[in-house]
Structure formats: structure tokens, C-alpha cells
């Protein structure tokens, strides 16, 4: 009798273990995006800005997730920069970090309180919803509304997306600027062919460490802490490279 009870107990325990082993695991919730808060200390263009967080460290370069603003030298580029400046400069914002791009920039959605800054830029016609292969991006409804109402860069019709502009004219640093003049112009380097060289913020700060006007211009636009524009006129290394 005891032997039979022992066998039955062992069988019951074995069945329980097998059931537990085959029971699907409860899915873990996706991690919440990391959030940081700071003050916008500089606006680079219509979708890139610097956020100064607490402490004495260098500002964080933030590429606003989900939007694609005109290139600085593209029609509508200066207006997009001015619109983002009006929305965000010197404002306290929250960045919901999603990733880091190939240039070392932080990619994330930017909020001023409850205001989604990227949403507002697309809604006002100063940026497109970012395309991801066959996905028209998170702000396609706002983009369609801006086109229908002829807002911002859609006012005259015929506006082309930055990707197509780069295919036609190359990168801004190597292509003639056809945008309207602004208070902070992006200079076109002389004798530098349009290229798609991928630079990254690698710790270099001074003109003596640069190899071209194009490179110095990219560092000035994207890397905090660089010392290549001593007279703050927007033209880097004007004694060495960008004469």
C-alpha cells in the first residue's frame, strides 16, 4: 500500500512539473523609455537641439524622434530652425530617449510639459513625419493636415523631403545654399565637393584637429564643447579652413 502511494505521489509530482514546464511564461512588459529633463541651450536646425541637464557636463545633442525637417540650406530650412527656436530655446523640456544614432546623437521625443514638440513642428508645416521604409511615420495625420491647409513649407506646393533634396543637391556643407539668409547662416565651404562622409563627435575640439571646412562645420553644428568659432559668427575655422 505504501509503495503504491509513493508511486502515485511521484506520478502526481511529475505531472505537475511537466505542466509547469509547458506553461507559457508571462511576457515581460517593455521597458519604459529613459527620460531626462533639462533646458534647451541651442537649436541647430529644425529637428536637432542641445539640452543642458543638471551638472557641469556638456549639453546633450538631441535629434527629435519621428520628424524630418528641411536641411539648413534647403528652402524652408531657416524657417524650420526659427520655428523650433521659438518653441524650445531656453525652455525646460523632457526628452524620452529612444536610441542613439550613427552620429552619436540622442534620439527621442521632446516635450515641453504636455506639448509634443515634434508633433507641433509637423502640424505647423515645418517638418515631415519621418518615413521608416513602408511606414509613413508617427505624425502622418498631422502632415496631411498641414499639406491640406498649406501651412509652412507646404504653402506654395512642391516642397520636397530632405532625403530627396540630398539626392539632388548633396549635403548642405558641400552644396550651394539656396535657402533665405538667416541670422545664423550655415556656410558653404569652398573647394569641397559634396560628400556623404559620416562624421562623429570623437573628442576633437580645435581647428588644428580638423581636416576640412566641411568637417569643421559639421563639428560646430553637432558636437558640444568645440572651440572652432572664436568670434561666434557661425563660420568655423575661418583662418584655417573656411576662408
Shape: globular
CATH architectural designation of the largest domain: Beta Barrel
Q: Using the coordinates shown, work out and report the CATH topology of the largest domain.
A: OB fold (Dihydrolipoamide Acetyltransferase, E2P)
Strand arrangement in the largest pleated sheet: 1-2-3-6-5
Total individual domains: 2
For the largest beta-sheet, the strand count, sense and barrel status come to: 5 strands, mixed, barrel
Stretches where pLDDT is under 50 for at least 5 consecutive residues are 174-196
Annotation, overall tally of beta strands = 8
CATH class of the largest domain: Mainly Beta
- How would you name the oligomeric state of the polypeptide chains in this document? single chain
Helix content: 25-40%
Class per helix and strand makeup: alpha+beta
The total count of helices amounts to 6
Radius of gyration: 25 Å
Average pLDDT figure: 80
Strand content: 15-25%
**Gap from first CA to last CA:** 101 Å
In a nutshell, what does this entry contain?
The chain has 243 residues and is an alpha+beta fold. Helices cover 28% and strands 18% of the residues.
Would you give an account of this structure?
The chain is globular, with a radius of gyration of 25 Å. The longest helix has 21 residues, at 2-22. The chain has 243 residues and is of the alpha+beta class. Strand 6 and strand 7 form a beta hairpin. The model is unreliable at 174-196 (pLDDT under 50). It contains 6 helices and 8 strands. It folds into 2 domains: 34-172, OB fold (Dihydrolipoamide Acetyltransferase, E2P) (Beta Barrel), CATH 2.40.50.90; 187-243, no CATH class.
Amino acid at each position: 500500500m505504501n509503495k503504491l502511494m509513493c508511486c502515485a505521489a511521484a506520478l502526481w509530482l511529475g505531472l505537475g512539473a511537466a505542466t509547469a514546464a509547458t506553461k507559457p511564461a508571462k511576457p515581460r512588459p517593455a521597458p519604459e523609455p529613459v527620460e531626462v529633463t533639462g533646458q534647451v541651450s541651442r537649436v541647430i536646425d529644425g529637428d536637432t537641439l542641445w539640452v543642458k541637464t543638471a551638472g557641469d557636463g556638456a549639453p546633450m545633442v538631441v535629434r527629435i524622434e519621428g520628424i524630418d525637417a528641411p536641411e539648413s540650406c534647403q528652402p524652408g530650412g531657416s524657417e524650420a530652425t526659427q520655428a523650433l527656436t521659438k518653441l524650445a530655446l531656453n525652455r525646460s523640456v523632457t526628452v524620452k530617449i529612444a536610441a542613439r544614432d550613427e552620429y552619436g546623437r540622442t534620439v527621442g521625443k521632446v516635450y515641453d510639459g504636455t506639448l509634443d514638440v515634434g508633433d507641433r513642428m509637423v502640424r505647423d508645416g515645418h517638418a515631415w513625419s519621418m518615413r521608416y521604409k513602408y511606414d509613413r511615420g508617427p505624425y502622418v495625420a498631422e502632415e496631411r493636415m498641414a499639406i491640406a491647409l498649406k501651412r509652412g513649407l507646404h504653402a506654395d506646393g512642391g516642397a520636397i523631403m530632405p532625403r530627396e533634396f540630398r539626392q539632388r543637391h548633396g549635403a548642405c556643407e558641400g552644396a550651394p545654399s539656396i535657402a533665405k539668409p538667416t541670422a545664423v547662416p550655415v556656410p558653404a565651404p569652398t573647394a569641397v565637393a559634396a560628400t556623404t562622409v559620416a562624421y562623429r563627435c570623437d573628442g576633437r575640439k580645435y581647428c588644428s584637429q580638423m581636416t576640412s571646412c566641411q568637417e569643421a562645420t559639421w563639428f560646430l553644428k553637432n558636437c558640444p564643447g568645440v572651440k572652432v568659432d572664436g568670434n561666434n559668427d557661425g563660420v568655423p575655422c575661418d583662418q584655417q579652413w573656411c576662408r
